[in-house]
Amino acid sequence: MEQEFYRGLAQRVRGMAEKADPFTRRRLLDLAKLYDSKRGAAGPGATERPLPAPRTTPPPSSFSGPGES
């Protein structure tokens, strides 16, 4: 799934590069290469980053008491 995400980003960036000025085109193509390398780094056995552990207590409320408006 992550590979598809980076592939889509690289395609979008290359599409924008086609219409950009030479300086911006070069930078966009470098960015597309970066996305391609991230896509390639996630090999067949790679797993996605795990989600953080859920909070055990709710965050403190920003309201000091009931009925305040």
In short:
With 69 residues, the protein is mainly α.
Architecture overview:
By secondary structure, the chain is mainly α. Helices cover 54% and strands 0% of the residues. It contains two helices and no strands. Helix 1 packs antiparallel against helix 2. It is elongated. The N and C termini lie far apart (45 Å). The relative contact order is 0.15. The mean pLDDT is 79.
Write the layout of secondary structure elements.
Elements: H1 2-18, H2 22-41
Overall geometric form: elongated
Please report the number of helical segments. 2
Q: Tell me how many strands there are.
A: 0
Q: What is the radius of gyration computed over CA atoms, rounded to a whole number of angstroms?
A: 21 Å
Q: Note the gap between the termini.
A: 45 Å
Query: What oligomeric state do these chains adopt?
Result: single chain
Enumerate the spans where pLDDT stays under 50 for 5 or more consecutive residues: none
- Percentage of residues in strands: under 5%
Helix content: 40-55%
Average per-residue pLDDT, rounded, comes to 79
Biggest sheet features: none
How do the helices and strands follow one another from N- to C-terminus? HH
Decide which structural class fits the backbone: mainly alpha
Question: Any key phrases for this structure?
Answer:
69 residues, mainly alpha, 2 helices, elongated
